[in-house]
Design brief:
The chain is an alpha/beta fold. Helix content is 46%, strand content 16%. The protein is built from six helices and five strands; from the N terminus they run E-H-E-H-H-E-H-E-H-E-H.
Amino acid sequence: MGKKVIASGVFDIIHMGHVYFLRKAKEIAGYDGELIVVVARDSTVKAKSGRSPVIPEEERRTIVEELKPVDRAILGYEPPSIRRVIEEYRPDVIVLGYDQDEIEEEVRKAIADLNVKIELIRIDKFKHSSVSSSTDIRGKLELYRGDK
């Protein structure tokens, strides 16, 4: 029997690292499981990174939902709340990306506070591409602009 898996992220500029992360999350869910992806709100991205996303939140949500491994994509809550996501969707597993250290403690605390049994799995970094993060892409674009 499949599992209900929650993954989350900004998904501003889709790249192979995102595809790898979502593919691995769906593998954990199983063919008959459900992968629900929480896409960060524009306001959350701005508050955490100091910059607005390139692609607006609803467009990012739609793009993510169209990716093959994803069963459903939702926008995160305002203010952000992993606790509300857990309460509403009751996942069996929450997957975190290699770069999501800042939310791991928040997720662990919500799981403990709610006294629920949820497995927390970390997905390692995709290493088979020279571009495996949005930061890599932005850096390449800056180099490209500098070449003109």
